[in-house]
Amino acid sequence: MMRLRRYDGGMTGTIPTLEQIDALHRKVAPSQAAYDLIHTHCVIVADITRRLAHRQNALFMRRCTLPDAHAEQVDVPPTDGVAGGLVPPRYIDVDTAVRGAMVHDIGTYLVLREDGADGGPLKFGDDYIEHGLLGYRLLLDEGVDESIAQFARNHTGVGLTREAVERQHLPLPPDDYVPVNLEQEIVMVADKYNSKSVPPRFLTAATYARKAARFGEANRDEWLGLVRKYGEPPVAELADHYHQKLT
């Protein structure tokens, strides 16, 4: 579903630092509770993204030392707790992927129905499906480069196609909202292992597969293919580290 190409449209804005991204979260968040939930989710997704990217790069570097340069699978010990995965076609830009992970859900602040400012629980509105596009537009308005803003636009589910938008009558302009490079795809995958439910929780690959199956067997199979491609992060270890439940 991913279009394997790098964004090559040239610089259209700035590449924010992690400090600038944090400042943007604080600027957009309507409450401390909203910041705590959404920013923490982005931190977790960035952590998983970094691990998956490091795993991909370890596999790529190992392939470069093998006689058969076309081997798809190589025997490499776990990297940052991630085992499995297939050799990528190129080296992953870890810094860009991590920046993308930190902004990918910036639009969810804009679809909160209850922001928790009064001490009540956070609740997202029925327009949640729009958060990716809203986040993308927000980032562009803030002067963030297109190459980073696209992480917000292209991370929903396992890739939201024009066909799915039209078939499901989603409140989005008909278009493909799918990763256009490996870095975006890694963030999309990492995002599936952590939920912003209240309270937030980690999901195993099997748990998300069941969730994906609600949208059809093809959707589930797409997810399982991504798990095979990138390996599985150590979600039990991460759940303990971030003091969240694992389901």
Find the count of extended strands (DSSP E, 2+ residues). Answer: 5
Multimerization state? single chain
Span of the ends, CA to CA: 27 Å
Category by helix and strand content? mainly alpha
Mean pLDDT over all positions? 92
Q: How does the major sheet shape up? A: 3 strands, mixed
From N to C, what is the helix and strand string?
HHHEEHHHHEEHHHE
Q: Rounded to an integer, what's the Rg over CA atoms? A: 18 Å
| Amount of beta strand | under 5%
Low-confidence stretches: 1-8
Keywords: Hydrolase
Organism: Bifidobacterium italicum
Protein name: Phosphohydrolase
GO molecular function: hydrolase activity
Notes on the protein architecture:
Helix 8 packs antiparallel against helix 9. The longest helix has 32 residues, at 32-63. Residues 1-8 have low confidence and may be disordered. Strand 1 (112-114) and strand 2 (123-124) form a beta hairpin. The strands form 2 sheets. The chain has a 3-stranded mixed sheet, covered by helices on one side. The chain has a two-stranded antiparallel sheet with strand order 1-2. With 247 residues, the chain is mainly α. It has one domain. 48% of the residues lie in helices and 4% in strands. This is Phosphohydrolase. InterPro entries: HD_domain.
